């Protein structure tokens, strides 16, 4: 399985474009993939927005949204996603 870790800090509506691009890319892959969004202390509702986007329809791959309350930095977000 290939894991795609995407750290995010208050991306706003841009996360919707990122989600669409990731979804379309992963759907073209034959090998198994998982997508992990890590909301690094987002205060703009990114976690909820992603939850709604991910909840729509059948995806054909695994998606996780990890959301924690305090910004800890990109490195921490990536390590959290890998765990």
How do the helices and strands line up, and which of them pair or pack?
Elements (H helix, E strand, L loop, with lengths): L1 E7 L5 H14 L5 E8 L5 H9 L7 E7 L5 H9 L1
Parallel strand pairs: 1-2, 2-3
Describe the overall structure.
With 83 residues, the protein is of the alpha/beta class. 39% of the residues lie in helices and 27% in strands. The chain is built from 3 helices and 3 strands, in the order E-H-E-H-E-H. It has helices spanning 14-27, 46-54, 74-82, and strands at 2-8, 33-40, 62-68. It has a 3-stranded parallel sheet, sandwiched between helices. Helix 2 (46-54) links the parallel strand 2 and strand 3. The chain is globular and about 35 Å long.
> Strand pairing plus helix content: what structural class?
alpha/beta
**Could you report the average pLDDT, rounded to the nearest whole number?**
93
> Which stretches are low in confidence, meaning pLDDT under 50 for 5 or more residues running?
none
Question: Please, how many helices?
Answer: 3
Shape: globular
Helix content: 25-40%
Q: What profile does the largest beta sheet have?
A: 3 strands, parallel
Radius of gyration computed on alpha carbons: 12 Å
Written as H for each helix and E for each strand, in order along the chain, the element string is: EHEHEH
Brief digest:
The chain is α/β, with parallel strands linked by helices. The protein has helices spanning 14-27, 46-54, 74-82; strands spanning 2-8, 33-40, 62-68.
């Amino acid at each position: 399985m290939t894991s795609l870790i995407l750290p995010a800090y208050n991306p706003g509506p841009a996360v919707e474009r990122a989600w669409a691009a990731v979804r379309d890319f992963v759907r073209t892959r034959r090998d198994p993939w998982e997508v992990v969004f890590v909301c690094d202390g987002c205060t703009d509702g990114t976690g909820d927005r992603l939850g709604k986007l991910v909840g729509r329809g059948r995806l054909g791959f695994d998606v996780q949204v990890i959301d924690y309350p305090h910004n800890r930095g990109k490195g921490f977000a990536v390590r959290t996603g890998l765990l």
